Amino acid sequence: MNEQMQTAKANRIHIGFFGRCNAGKSTLINMITGQPIALVSEVAGTTTDPVSKSMEILPLGPVLLIDTAGVDDRSQLGHLRIEKTKTMIPKINIAVYVLRSDKLIDKIDQEWIERLQKAGLPLLLVINEVKGYKADAYMAQQTVTFPREGMTYIGVDASKSFEQKKILKALSRLSVKDSEEERTLLEGLVKPNKRILLVCPIDSAAPKGRLILPQVQMIRDILDHRGLSLVVQTEEVPEALRTFKPELVITDSQAFGPVSQMVPDAIPLTSFSIIMARFKGKLKALVAGAQAIKGLHSGSKVLISEGCTHHRQCDDIGTVKIPRWLAQAGYTDLDLTWTSGGAFPDDVSAYDLVIHCGACMLTRREVLRRIDITLQNGVPIVNYGVLIAVLHGILDRALSPFQQEL
Q1: What is the mean pLDDT of the chain?
Q2: Does the pLDDT at position 3 exceed 90?
Q3: Helix and strand tally (H, E) in the chain?
Q4: Gap between the Cα atoms of 343 and 78, Å rounded
Q5: Which domains does the chain have, with CATH numbers?
Q6: What's this model's pTM, rounded to 2 decimal places?
């Protein structure tokens, strides 16, 4: 299926496969998908960086299977690979820990099983049954103990394709908490025949030939709820107001200024980024962080973080437009730092403010982790939409559709 036709990776349930080298993780993933996704070899440490594959598992729905490096990798780069594997834990919704039935659980297995349990993840132990050793007998003879409450195990022969239904059934029984699949972007904001105007500027930073993910997702959400949508650029807003008569306007944050001047106060107005903040993270926390913007001064340390990695355009929002808008609002000579993709520091205590993107490419679990890290460090955090609304003096208006929630 064309990648553009699939459910976005950030909205899929992420299932991470962990275990020692040669436990059978890659073989298991290949068996589940029916495709040679992961490289299989008797040589320890074959899997280096995490490998992922999208598929459907009913009733879980769209999922992303992630194969990780062995947790006991002792190769030259083993330490780095293990650290990379650890970074996957906050990004996943379900953990699968794979064991070989001919090797008893050791202290490394115990540490990793407990690490996954402490992360609050639904955990499935898969006993890869080799050499005739069965799962029940294997679990009965374990000498290493670990909390088994809320954890299940099954035995499969990862090399046998007929075992696929067994593992899929076990995965489908796991309960996933706080999955985006159980939420909708415009929850409570759209109903049948409600007219919603989407303002999507097409400038030098816009991807050629397509819309960005949040815009596409909201169009789909409006369709799912039988609402009516009209998509225009900033210049067409006056005509759309006259002919379409929208009941709600959602704009790209970059156009907040001019769009807010065109749209009458009687019509609710917000941004894609603020809706993403409500959908993915903690809108209250991001709004509270807006107060810290007023305290910025020369030399203030600000982290600007984006969830995706993309080629920087000449008018890029994170590296060009936001610094420019801050300067125009009087916040000059700031000490700015940028991160992108999977990079986000565990210690942000040195910063006075964290500014995060809308996070359309990150899972809700990862967004919540980043917000929690920031708040635990005593640092305020806002996202692009909240920041831009503050800088344009229209935050109260941009939050008006969510007043009851706030």
Answers
A1: 85
A2: no
A3: 14, 14
A4: 20
A5: 3-181 (3.40.50.300), 182-276 (3.40.50.11420), 285-391 (3.40.50.11410)
A6: 0.71
